[in-house]
Every structure is written in C-alpha cells, then in structure tokens.
Amino acid sequence: MPKAIIIGAGVAGIASAIRLAVKGFEVEVFESNAYPGGKLSEIVIDGYRFDAGPSLFTMPQYVEELFHLAGKNPLEYFSYYKLSSICNYFYEDGTRLTAWADKHKFAREIAGKTADSEHAVHDFLKRSEEIYEITHHVFLEKSLHKIRTYLNTATLNSLLKIGKIDSLRSMNEANESYFIDQRTTQLFNRYATYNGSDPYRAPATLNVIPHLEQHFGAYFPKGGMNMITASLVKLAEELGVKFRYNSKVEEIVLEDEKVKGIRLQGQLEEADLVISNMDVWHTYKKLLKNLYVSSRVLNQERSSSALIFYWGINTTFQELDLHNILFSEHYEAEFRAIWKEKKIFNDPTVYINISSKYNASDAPAGCENWFVMINVPANAGQDWDKLIAEARENVINKISRNLNVNLRDYIVCEDILDPRSIESRTSSYQGSLYGTSSNSRFAAFLRHPNFSSSIKNLYFVGGSVHPGGGIPLALLSAKITSELI
Length: 485
Description:
Helices cover 34% and strands 20% of the residues. The chain is built from 16 helices and 20 strands. The strands form 5 sheets. The chain has a 7-stranded mixed sheet with strand order 8-7-16-17-18-15-19. The mean pLDDT is 94.
C-alpha cells in the first residue's frame, strides 16, 4: 500500500487525507498544533464558544462530496441550516439593509432603501452567474498548470468567452456602472474581502462571488463551523487516516529530485508522496530550505489579514443576526489605509458574527458570543499593540453609535487574534488569510500550482495555492491535487 504524508491538518489537508484514503493510500497527517482545523477551529472562554476563523459556510456540496466518496451518508456526520437572510448591513447614514437569500426579496429590499432598482440588482446577479458559468470549469476545478486542462471542449468554450469575465475593469469600476447608489456599490464591493483583496484594484471577475452566495445559498452548520472540521476528521479516522498532533515537521526530505519523506524530531518518516497544507511560503522557506524557487512565487503581494475580538456579551440584540456588517463611511479610504499605508483605518468596516443566534449553547442564557472582525494589512512589522488598542476603541465606538448603546457595559470577557497570532498558529505568512491577494487580473495564474514542477511526488493544497483561499476553494485544492495524483 503506497504511503502519503500530509503536512498540516487544515481543512484542505483533511480533505486530501480522505481522498487519498479512498484511493487506497496509507495516510498520516502531521499537525504542529494540538488540534485539527487550522483556521477552521474553535476557542472557548468563560462559557462562550467561538468559531476561531471562517464564519460563512457556502457550497456545502464540496463537504458532502467527501462523505459520498467514502460511501457514507453525510447526514450521519454533519447537518446544516440554509439561511433565509444572509447578512444585515448597517450604514452610517442610518440605512439598514437585509440581504435576503431570495433574490427577488433581496432586489426589493435594495430598491426600497436605495436609489437602485430591482432590475439593476437582477441584471447584476445575472452577470455574476455568467462569470461563474464561464470560469468555474477552468479556474476553480482544474489545475491551471497542466496542458491537458486546456485540451477539452468545456475549457475551449470558456476561453472563447474570456472577454466576458470583465477582467480589465476593477470591481469598483464595474459596480459603479451597474448601480447609481453608493450604498449598493459598497455592498457588492465588499465581496472582494472574501479573498482578502481590494475592490478598487481587484478585477471585476471577482463579481462571481455574489453568485456563489446568492444562488447556492449561505448556511450554518449545526454545532457551529468547527463541526465541519470535527465531522471530516471523524470520517478520515474511520477510513484509517492517522493524525499526529503536536508534531512539527522540520524538513521535507528529498533524494534525487524526488520526495523521500519528512524529518520530525530528527527522525525520517518515509513516504511515497508528500502533500503540504502549510502556507507555500513557509513550505519553501522552512521545509525546503535548499530548493530554489522563483522570487515571483514568494514575493507576490499577500492578501489582507484580520483583527478579531472574541467578546462575551451579557445581553442580546434583536436587530443583529448571524452575519452583520457595519460599513465604513469612507470605504475607499479604508482600503487605501490597508493596502497603501499598511495601517488600520480609523473608521473600519466591522463584521459581527453571532453563532449563538442559531446555536444557543454557544453563550450563557440571555447572552451572545460576538466574533468581531475588521480587515487589516498583513504583518509587515507594524506596532500592532498600538494599532490594536486604537482599533478596539474605534470599533466599540462604531458599534455603540450604530446600535445606540454603550457597548463597553456589556463586554464581560475577551480574547484577541491579530496578524501575528494568525501566523504563529496557522503558519500563514504575514498572517495573510488567503495566501496571495487577487488584486491583479493575472492573480489566478500566478498562484502556486498544486504540484512541484521540479520535485517528483510533492504536492500543495490550501488557501495559499490554486485555486485560492476560503473553505470551498481549499476543498477544491484537495480535489484537484488528488486527481493529479
């Protein structure tokens, strides 16, 4: 039986383990932390449970596919709700919008509260769907770095329509052409942050993202986002996958330009192939120390990072739902601060996730667990202690102003995650959440491939390689890699 070693028990590493076990491999997963999941994990503070990282669940079919591959019923491991309202939006002028899952209701909501029409919203969503239909066969589901990807009818049809994916304009330029109200433009510009990019620079091709959310739906896993990790680990273990925690890999060992295994605590663990779910930057710099790699790969602009406050709140807020956004009044200035000035804007857009709205046990009775996040630059040596202290005050003031309360009176416990701790806990270079940014029309092609072109039987999965960051794309990276193998 051939043996595969996977470095990192993030969701892409776990999915890779399942796929290879189904193919008949003996699989071992080495994880430096004491727990699986990487960013998709959880923390508990004083009776409040928080999903540590990703909080939006879309395209559940990619999770369910793993159970079907193993001949299992997903419902015996994992279940979820479809959300009727995806997100509540709050603007500084007092406007409040609900993004309903029903696209007709959503369009009516925008038409009733902005200067834009239902027709404009439907036209935009139709355009988003068209971009998806053109691109997903190539950009999401296949390796962009294998010639056979381009030698089939579906790919050729997509390439013939490449001019329709709107790659020459920025997302903001495109959205301003669709909508006349800046509030609507701002709402749809926000989708650039789903892969850590800047809507004023990223190509309008990223307008594919609203289709993924609006058409396929947004969901909440019963028990919280961490249940995705827990259910997949359970499946993997049932398939014979061995997880070795607190096991920091020191080196990927090569012999004659071929993988031989890994080195762990000075000992060689042999394998027929190795998959790294570690950030590709750290894979090369720490595990492949003597292997040359083009600076074009390692010096690409990183995605944005995040500053997260985990707050136990000793009351409830009826105007808030699972997902909530409080927009900055000066959106372009916020992104200029993040990307050009490498600092935190004084009026940041604030995301509040409250999983206790759907999973009551996540907070004590009459209380709520607030996951409060703002987008921040990747770590480039800033004075984070000073930035965090200032941002905390600005965030509390903004929430208090929008909800007409003094939020300080209700925060009873706190933990903080910043770019430094994101990097130390998840090996994400500079604390970037999605590997490299998508601020270039060529970004999809510049991401590192899912295989090594110089080392036989060395592969890569996760958010830092093709096709990108976020749960669905990380799962697709595992699918692409297993098909290459």
